Amino acid sequence: MTLLYGAGLRVIEGLRLRVKDLDFSYDQITVRDGKGQKDRHTMLPSKVKAALQEHLRSVKAIHQTDLEAGFGRSAGIAKHATLHCLRHSFATHLLVNGYDIRTVQELLGHSKLKTTMIYTHVLNRGGRGVQSPADLL
Questions:
Q1: Is 99 a catalytic residue?
Q2: Domain stops at, among 76, 96, 114
Q3: Which of 87, 93, 102, 128 is catalytic?
Q4: What is the 3-state secondary structure (H, E, C) of 22-37?
Q5: Is the confidence at residue 54, as pLDDT, over 90?
């Protein structure tokens, strides 16, 4: 209940949440295929973080038991990733560490600044820099 209110989620959006939609480091939730089949980002309320992390720990323990019983695959990767993600991480970390966008553009070899601008989303705090009303209760 607090998660739905604190993040402004519709019921169906809450039911569809997956582990990869929760970003604890940026305090952000990715809502996939919301109303109008649109994706969006919203805040991850501080008030629910500990409970969510505990829930994920318990689910991971169950998953580990299943793996030990011979079910599933043991790659240990919680989120989908490709090697190209390293390039994105490179640019993202440079911006987070204060390097200017033109430097990042040059290092990535982009001819147009607009191409590099996709990485500037990380300069906003998670959930668009807005504090959840649930955290004020």
A1: no
A2: 76
A3: 87
A4: EECCCCEEEECCCHHH
A5: yes
